[in-house]
Amino acid sequence: MRSVHLKKKHSKESIREILETANLQPTVQRLSLLQYLLEDADHPTAEQVRDWAYGHLGQISQATVYNTLNSLVSAGIIRQFKFGHSDCVIYDCNISDHVHFLDETSGKLFDIQTHEIKLKSRLPDHFQLKSIDILFRGTVDPKGQNLQAKGTNQR
Ligand SMILES: [Zn+2]
């Protein structure tokens, strides 16, 4: 299993490198928000990122937070998606192929690697698949470690 997307500590240099590789100026806001997204956030909404920024970065406007998120999405560093379970756009720093499992009890989203599910598509030849957005819904037994053991949300 690839481990790039696992939550782990990133050095300031590695975060700066991610931004520079994507041709983004490593501003203080981008560095801080990206570090938060990579290390602490778990499928946050824009509002959750904004609230974190207000609490941790002091003087930062909502527009700056949202613009920063948009620039990170445009650069392909994080991605955003929207599912029917919520009106909110959700940000994800796991940009590898994966689908999501929604624990309807806690509202938490778990990453499920695509190789852990069997999906057979019979798309017509002239349909070119770009990405798959699938949301599994159910419950996760807090005592069961099945998802946790296989999941990708561990630190
Ligand atoms: Zn995800």
Overview of the molecule:
By secondary structure, the chain is α+β, with helices and mostly antiparallel strands. The chain folds into two domains: about 10-80, Orthogonal Bundle (Arc Repressor Mutant, subunit A); about 95-150. It has five helices and five strands. The chain has helices spanning about 10-20, 30-40, 45-55, 60-75, 145-150; strands at about 80, 90, 100-105, 110-115, 135-140. The strands form two sheets. It has a three-stranded mixed sheet, with no helix packed on it. A hairpin with a 5-residue loop joins strand 3 and strand 4 (about 110-115). It is globular, with a radius of gyration of 17 Å. The chain starts with 11 loop residues before the first helix and ends in a 5-residue tail after the last helix.
Q: What percentage of amino acids are in beta strands?
A: 5-15%
Q: What compounds are bound to the protein?
A: zinc ion
Q: What is the molecular shape?
A: globular
Q: CATH topology of the largest domain, anyone?
A: Arc Repressor Mutant, subunit A
Class inferred from helices and paired strands? alpha+beta
Distance between the termini: 15 Å
Q: What is the average per-residue confidence, as pLDDT, rounded to a whole number?
A: 86
Q: How many alpha or pi helices?
A: 5
The helicity comes to 25-40%
* Low-confidence parts: 1-5, 147-155
Give the total of domains.
2
Total E-strand runs = 5
